[in-house]
């Protein structure tokens, strides 16, 4: 029940549990959704036991995922007794995060700044997006520490990000407040969760995929509700300014070099994993950028995900570590979560056709990413299930 807390999809988790049960000489049937885990075990004597547990999926944690995978490998190989393995699982689960809260907040801020560069923001907009990203990260950490009501973080973060952007645009210097709001919220936008949900649906895990997809859409909707409320109530404060972008092309490459490291820290990956995460992420984005002008964003997304999946699986085979380690941070730059946000924004402004188009493009890109990952598993199969 520990792997689900750190971002393991249902199809991978069920296969891991089945393999561990087989290594222990027990027949097991497993059913996992983001909120429930059903385990049915049958001993060689014929005795059967079924357990149902209420679970809550947590944030992706690369460091703990690697340690869990290594421990499960020892269990499968008979190198450690089950009782000791259970104690070590608890120790890993209770261990503190790899990075301190200030480091995590700075990484979120840098990630938001890089995303603002990708969106074509000016230098002022990039800096404001970084400040908003740090504030949103602080709210996330405060939400975790104070154990606020589940679902409160997203609308609260949307309100804070929108208010901050509007006040800066009104009273300090002219910026595109919508761009800075979107970039500042990028860490909370569930684009990766949407892609994982479609992957689960594609491989036949309908219950888990449907539940995760519904959760992702509700998360995106509540996030945008906070933004929309501020836009409506502070309409008179929002300046109407058309600003040319002064984000030169070379800044995109600098942001591309920095963003993978920032996302690696956000996902709590150790510094030893930074080089492979950076290489896989940059490879996927470069492939996508090279193909998009000629064949369109959908084909570019497919081949970008294919490059990330193949390189991640190859690394997993060579180093005998989970392919999810470089794959998940690499995919985060490609996922279309921002399009869902823009779809809600266009619908709010009664631009129905544009809103529907953004939403359809989001689904199409997400499906293309899923297709690329599935094909990569057929081309280069990973040695480990994770």
TrEMBL record:
Q: State the organism of origin.
A: Stieleria marina
Q: Which UniProt keywords apply?
A: Membrane, Transmembrane, Transmembrane helix
Q: Where is the signal peptide?
A: none
GO CC annotation, single: membrane
Question: Where located?
Answer: Membrane
- Outline the extent of the Threonine/serine exporter-like N-terminal domain: 3-232
Give the protein name, as stated in the record.
Answer: Threonine/serine exporter-like N-terminal domain-containing protein
Q: Which domain of life is it from?
A: Bacteria
Query: Where is the Threonine/Serine exporter ThrE domain positioned along the sequence?
Result: 254-378
